[in-house]
Write a structure and sequence with these properties.
Elements (H helix, E strand, L loop, with lengths): L6 E4 L13 H10 L3 E6 L5 E6 L2 E3 L2 E6 L4 H8 L2 E6 L8 E12 L2 H15 L6 E3 L2 E4 L2 E18 L2 E7 L3
Antiparallel strand pairs: 1-11, 2-3, 2-6, 4-5, 5-10, 6-7, 7-10, 8-9, 9-10, 10-11
Protein name: Pyridoxamine 5'-phosphate oxidase family protein
Amino acid sequence: MAANSPVTELDARYSEEKATASDWSEAVDHLRTAEVFWLSTVRPDGRPHVTPLIAVWHDGGLHFCTGPDERKAKNLRENREVVLTTGANALNEGYDLVLEGTAATVSDEARLRALAGAYVEKYGADWTFEVRDGAFVGDGGTALVFRVEPRTAFGFAKSPYSQTRWQFTQ
């Protein structure tokens, strides 16, 4: 589980004079409510791969799932380092987040059941999963579940403009 109190730093180079660093709790609120995230992974040949997906913040980590034969799952077999981003598609409003970390497979059935409940709570009954053999099972087949605890995260406020960095010790 990631540290509850990361080192927080405002980067003045990318912040307006009146800006202040955002509190990590504010970022967590955004992670809990954001509906779409962009996952960046690295292909075995070194090329980047980015794809949108849904995710849930639970117990100090961001969780997502994917089919075992999808590109992102294949990439994660070779390199577990990822970046997840979310935010507003607007220049002057909203809040953007970038979360860097290592994707760890979740296979414990009790944790998976809790996560399956979190998906339904956040996204509705269309995102109902059964838990079987250490994975989610749904209408689309089997999905592996991954957890990313933040190692470093960045928050980008837009009114006033600011860049906050959170550094976690793991």
